[in-house]
Amino acid sequence: MLSSKPVRLPSAANGEIEKGGAQGVALFASPIMTLSVPAPSGTPNAMADAWRRQTSLRRLYTVLGVGLLLAAMFGSMWFADEANAGHFFDRLPHLLDFLSWLVPKDWNDVWRALFDIASPHDTGTQEFNFPLGRVYVWGAFYVPEYFELMLITVNVALVSTFVGFIFAVPFSFIAARNLTPHPALRLVVKRFMELLRAFPEIVIAGLFAAIVSIGPIAAIIAIGLHSIGALGKLFYEINENIDMRAEEGLHAVGANWFERVRFADLPQVLPNFVSYTLLRVEINVRASTIIGAVGGGGIGEELKLSISRGFGAKTLALVLLLFTTIFIIDQFSAWLRRKLVGEQAFMMGA
Amino acid sequence: MSTMTADEILSIEERYPQVFRRPAYKRYGPLLLVAGTMLYLVYAMWFFSLPQVLRESHWERLPLFLTQWISYDLQPEFRLDQPEITPKYPRFSALGDNPNPDWVIKNPDGTFTVQIDGPAKSVTFDKTLATITAHGQTVHVSLTSGKPLVEGQVPDWITAHDDEVVARMGFVGEVRVTVDRVKVRKRFLGWANFVFDTRSPFFGKPAGEVISLIASGPELKPGTSNLALAADNIWNNAQWQHGDVWTKLLQTIVMAFLGTLLGGIVAFPLAFFAARNITPSGALGQVLKRFFDFMRSVDMLIWALFFTRAFGPGPLAGSAAIFFTEIGTLGKVYSEGLENIDDKPREGIKSTGANGLLVQRYGVMPEVIPIFISQTLYQWESNTRGATIIGAVGAGGIGLKLWEAMRTNSNWANVFYMVLLILMVVFIFDNISNLLRRRLSRTIHDYNRIQARQG
C-alpha cells in the first residue's frame, strides 16, 4: 500500500535511481518510507546508498535554501526597521494606541456617520456632521455621502473592468499563438499588454489627473489601462488551450478570421473570460479604493482624511461600509463564477 | 463563408431542432445582457458627468508632458530695460553657475543672437528690433512704440498678443518677446545632468576626462579619492536624487518580499486547521476561513493607513499592511490547495501509526509544497507591483516619491526615471518568479505522471 505513493523505486534491478522523474518528489520524501519500501531483488545496499546520497544532498539544498531565505528575511526586516519613521520595538507597546481614538465615545455615532444623521456631539468641526456631501435624489430623499462615495468607487471599478474587457478580448485573440492573424502582430500586442500591466497605475492616474482634472475619470483611465493588460494576459492563455477542431471546421468552409473567432473560438472561451472578468472586478474595487486615496476620489480619499484627522466614529463607519461592500462583491462574484465554470475557477492561477 | 441553399438550411433545421428552437431566456438572454450593459454605461456616463469632464480637460497638455519625460529645456531671459543686455538664467538651471552656451551669441554690433535650432530657427535682437527666423520665414518685431509690433503679415506660427509676441518653433522651443525682455525656451532631448549635478567638480566634463581624473588625476577634494568623490556626487545628485530613489526602490522591494514571506509563514500552519479535510474541528475551520476573508476584505489600503498611523510612515508600515492582507489571501489559497489533495498518502501514513504531525509532514506536504510555493511566488510578483501604490499613502517605498514628483507637474523626467526603474524591477521579478514556477510546475507535472503510471 505504501509503495504506491510519492516514492517510486525503479523496478529495473540495475540499482540506479531514476533521475528526472522522481527528482522533485524525492525532495520531500522521507527516510521512513525508504525503510518500509520492500527493496526489489538485486543489490539493496547499493540502492540504499544511492538513495541516501540523493536525499542527503536534497536535504542540504533545502537547508541552504531556507537558510538563505531566512537571512534575506532578517536582513530586510532590519532594513525596513532602519528606514521607518518609528522603529518596530519602540512602537510595539504603542501599536494599539490608535484604538484610543478609534473607539468612539458613543457607538451610535458610527451609524449616524454612516447614514448622515445629525449627532448630538456635534461641535461644529467635521468630526460628526457633514450634510454638505448629501446627494438629493428625490425631494427630501438623499443618498448619504458615504454611500455616494462607495458608489463612485464601485462604479470606477465596474467601468474600468468593462474598458479592460472590451479591449482585452480582441487583443487576446491576436496574442494567442494558435489564433493570431500574424506572428509579428502577436508579438507587438503581447509586449504592449505587458507594458500596460507593469506600468505603475499611480503614474497613469497622476498624468491624467493633470489632464482631465483630479477625480474618478483619471482613476478609470489608470485602472482600465491596467485591466487591459491583466485581463489580456489571462485571456490569451485561455485561448491557447482551446479545442481547435471547431476552428478547423470553420476554416474548411472558408470562414475568415473574424468569423472563425466569433463562431468557433469565442463560444468556447466566453464563460472563462467572464469568470476572470468577475475576478478582476474584485481586484479593481480594491484598486479604485487605493487610487482614490491618492486623489482619485471616492471612498479611499475620505477614509485617508478621516484616519489622518483621527475621527474615530467616521473611520469605523467607512471601514464597515468598505468591508461589507468588498465582502458582498467577493461572495457574489465567487457564486457567479462557480455557476459559470464550476470549481475550476478556484484552482491554481485563478 | 460559402453560402447554402434554402433547402439545405431547412434540412439542417429539421435534423437539429434543439439548436434552432431554444427557450426564450436562452435566445434573448445575451441580448438583454448587452442591453443592460449599455444602459449601465449610459448611467455611468451621467454619473461621472463624462461629457463635461472631457470638455473641460486639457488634452493639449498630454504631448507636452510626454515630451518632458525625455527632454529638458533651458530658459534664458534677456532684460532690455537695463543699460546693457545680459542673459539671465533661472536659478538651478541645468547649465550650472557659469552658463556660457554656444547657442547664445553676442554679436560685434551689440545685438544678441539665440540659436534655438541652428541659424534656421533663431532670434536676433537689440533694444529696438527683434528678428525671428523660423519655418523659412523672417519676421521683424519692432519694440520702439511701447508695444511689440510685428511688421508685415503675421505668420500662423506667431501669436501676437497685446503686450507679447509668441513664436512657436515646435519641439525645439519658443521665443516670447515683450518691449522690456526677450525670453527663450530651448528644448533638448535627453536628461540633463543625469550623472553629475551642477555643484559637482566633475560637472560638464566629457566622459573621457572624468575617467582619467578618477583613474589618475590629482585629488579634486583633498583627503578623498576621486573615485569616492565621484560616487558620492552621483549618489547625492541634487536633481535626480539617485541615492534616495534607489533606497526607496529597495524599500518597495523589501516591503513586498517581507510581507509576502511573513504572510506565507503565518498562513501555512493556519491553512491546515482551516482545510475541511484536515482540520480537527469543523467549527475551527469555519472560524479560520472567515478570519482569512476578513483579512482580505479589510483591504491593503486600510491596513496601510492604520499601520502608517501605528509605526509612522515607512516601509515597516507597508510590510505590515502587505503581511496582514497576505495572511488572508495565502491562507485562503493554501487551504483550498489542501482541500484538493489526494487522501490516500495520508491514510497510508496513518495506518503505520504515525502521529498527527508526521501524517501532515509525510502524507500531505509532499503534495502541496510545490503548489504553495508557486502561489506564494505569484503573490510576491503581484505585491511587488502593488507595493508601489500603497507607498503613495505614506507606507514607504518609491510610491510617495513618485506621487510627489508628479504633483508638481514639472518633474516629469524624474517621474519617468522612477517608472523605468519600477518597470525594470517588475520585469526582473516576473522573470525570476516565472522561472521558479516553471521549474515547480515541472515537478508537479512529474509527480502527476508518476501517479498516473502507478494507477
Quick structural overview:
The complex is a heterodimer of chains A (350) and B (455). Chain A contains 14 helices and 2 strands, in the order H-H-H-H-H-H-E-E-H-H-H-H-H-H-H-H.
Topology of helices and strands:
The complex is a heterodimer of chains A (350) and B (455).
Chain A lengths: L22 H4 L4 H6 L7 H40 L4 H4 L6 H5 L5 H8 L19 E4 L2 E3 L1 H31 L7 H16 L2 H12 L3 H24 L5 H8 L4 H40 L2 H11 L2 H30 L9
Antiparallel strand pairs in A: 1-2
Helix pairs in contact in A: 6-14, 7-8, 7-10, 7-12, 8-10, 9-10, 9-12, 10-12, 11-12, 12-13, 12-14, 13-14
Chain B lengths: L5 H10 L1 H4 L3 H24 L2 H7 L4 H9 L1 E4 L2 E3 L7 E2 L15 E3 L5 E6 L3 E5 L3 E6 L2 E6 L6 E2 L7 E3 L4 E4 L4 E5 L3 E9 L17 H10 L9 H10 L6 H33 L7 H16 L2 H12 L3 H25 L4 H8 L4 H40 L2 H10 L4 H43 L1
Antiparallel strand pairs in B: 1-13, 2-3, 2-13, 4-5, 5-6, 6-7, 7-8, 8-9, 10-11, 11-12, 12-13
